[in-house]
Amino acid sequence: MYFVKKLESAQPKPGQIALFWLGQASFLIKNSKGDILALDPYLSDMVERMDGLKRLMMPVMEPEELHPAVILVTHFHGDHLDLDSFPAMVKPDTKVLMCPQSYPECQRIGIPEAQMSVAEVGMIWKRKGFAVEPVFAYHGDGAPGAVGYIVETEGIKIYFSGDTSYQSKRMEHAAAHDIDILIVPINGEYGNMSECDASMMAAQVRAKLTIPSHFWLFARHKGNPYDFELEMKANVPDLKTYTMCQGECLFYPE
Question: Which residues pair with 184 in a beta bridge?
Answer without folding.
Answer: 212
